[in-house]
Specification:
Blueprint: E1 4-7, E2 10-12, E3 18-24, E4 33-39, E5 46-52, E6 57-59, E7 67-72, E8 77-82, E9 91-99, E10 102-105, E11 109-113
Parallel strand pairs: 2-11
Antiparallel strand pairs: 1-3, 3-8, 4-5, 4-9, 5-6, 7-8, 9-10, 9-11
Length: 115
């Protein structure tokens, strides 16, 4: 089984930045799709930033221009650079990856944007 472990979350003030990391136990070359999702209490989990094996990216309208998703093949990691953070970005963020053998999710990590 593939394990995905998120890190880098925490408390940050509005306007601040955080970089989330997702460490994979398998080569990320094997994933056709990787993404960051987020979820707040009482709401459905939503896609924040996606990246395909070909390097195409897609962002939720609410984070365009502020968030950047990237990969490091050597480190087997997916990243989410979050800038100009807003209180509404507060959520549990999840890393996900898909490959022929299955779909995988991390356990989630809390990001809180508050003054």
């Amino acid at each position: 089984q593939v394990q995905l472990v998120e890190s880098g979350g925490g408390l940050v003030q509005p306007g601040g930045s955080l970089r989330l990391s997702c460490a994979a136990s398998a080569s990320i070359f094997s994933f056709s799709f990787m993404a960051w999702y987020r979820q707040v209490p009482g709401k459905e989990r939503e896609s924040v930033a996606e990246i395909t094996s070909g390097g195409f990216t897609k962002y939720a309208d609410s984070v365009k221009g502020r968030f950047t998703v990237s990969r490091d093949y050597a480190k087997k990691a997916l990243y989410l650079q979050m800038n100009s953070l807003r209180p509404e970005d507060t959520a549990v963020y999840y890393c996900t990856a898909k490959r022929i053998q299955g779909d995988y999710w991390g356990q989630g990590i809390q990001v809180t944007v508050s003054s």
